[in-house]
Amino acid sequence: MLEVSFDLAATMPDSSSAQFLMKNSPALILKTKAYAKDFFWTSWWCVLSTAFLLALTTVGPLLNLPLAAKVVCSLFAGLLSLRLFVIYHDQQHHAILPKSKLAGVFMWLFGIWALSPSSIWRSSHNHHHAHNSKLRGSHIGSFPIMTKENYQSSSRGKCFKYLFMRHPLTILFGLFSIFLYGMVICPFLNAPRKHFDCLLSFVVNLLMGIVLVHFFGWVAMVLALLIPRFIACAIGSYLFYAQHNFPDVSFNDNAGWTYEKAALESSSFLATNRVMAWFTANIGYHHIHHLNARVPFYRLPEVLKAIPELQQPKITSLHPRDIFRCLSLKVWCVETQRMVGVRNL
Prior knowledge:
Elements: H1 16-32, H2 40-59, H3 67-92, H4 101-113, H5 118-131, H6 148-153, H7 156-165, H8 168-172, H9 174-190, H10 196-216, H11 218-242, H12 259-265, E1 269-271, H13 274-279, H14 286-291, H15 300-306, E2 315-317, H16 320-327, E3 331-333, E4 338-340
Helix pairs in contact: 1-12, 2-3, 3-4, 3-11, 9-10, 9-11, 10-11
């Protein structure tokens, strides 16, 4: 990931609401602990039913079906890949099936298949949770963030790299930019021994593509492998971006940062309909997830209903207007304490 140096100005004092959250959020974490326990059979049902549907829709394009049916299978395979990835993400947090060795093996294999090997995903994502919304050190496992002052004083090359990392096309083509390169190729080249599973992921996915082309042809490979991956990675990349890059987001220097404040003020609630909530495995309840990552994804709505203090989150959605607003945000303005675009700097 791109590393960016910062020359920070003094931040504005916290608002009274922020001070209230900072004082009371530890108590909120204690309230969520009652829900930070999975239901064993519910967890397995979610894993196995999703895996079964994913296998079914992945095989669909390889069967003697009408082209329209194959395309439908391909699209649903992409959405189901996204759901299983979020479930994998939960298992890596030990939110579900924390003591199951079988689940650990299954999810390790899924990480290899999904271009998100456990060694790099767990380390980078844990870093993200520990440093969410910090102006220093949050670039690992997340999109980089520059202040307006730092951006204006940086070289054209550094600004180009920074904007490239946050560009809508980089997010849209997350299969190649974020997952294949960022989660597989780059980690292995930087630390081959530590991230040997990244090489394994690359080889396995390359062989899958070759086998599909050899036995079923290019069209089958595109429908069974490429399109589902493209859909899952594009949506997943945008969700990860929008959950921490939205109009009301808050960033802090290390001195003004707390874990609880970052969860409540720098993680959005992404409002979706029930269908997309299912396909995204409730990842839209992101402020609760960041407050306590041990809460299973299927219990996040339960937490929201039970704890009034969490019922007024900062909200975004998948409406085109909100997507445009999120993607237009580029740098953090210390004076206004808001994310802004770069056109009028």
